[in-house]
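Our preliminary data section would be incomplete without showing what the modeling component actually yields. Below, a chain of 141 amino acids is followed by its predicted structure, encoded as tokens that our downstream tools consume directly.
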Amino acid sequence: MNREQLKGILPHREPMLLVDEAEIVSGEEGLAAKGRYTVRGDEFFLQGHFPGNPVVPGVIQCEMMAQTCGVLMSAIPGAAGKTPLYTGLNKVKFKRQVRPGDTIEFFCRLTAQKNIFCFAEGKGTVEGEVCVQGEFSFALV
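Predicted structure:
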């Protein structure tokens, strides 16, 4: 899916749409999604973080991964028309700086579901090197 197609699934719009493309995948790891975002350098979150040394904030990396999870949640039966809202972040780690020109690739997989709550884990990589990873929970409302 490209950005325009993602707008049919995610409620986010510019400047907060932080996934350029995504796809639902299913395999031995269960229901999952892959997402991708290329950091251009002119994003709002780089304007003051940090002048002369732009680095993508960790919280923005988590949001990028959460939006990839949003694509994943759209594939859950009964999720149509519902918005996945963050309810928790756990075990988040940052392992590499992300800078303009980098393309972050995300892999997120569903780990559990109970009623309206969904649980996922994900990681983001740049050139095969992990930059962010964590566990997420969402409520589908």
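The two ends are 23 Å apart (CA to CA). The mean pLDDT is 96. Preliminary results of this kind motivate Aim 1 of the renewal.
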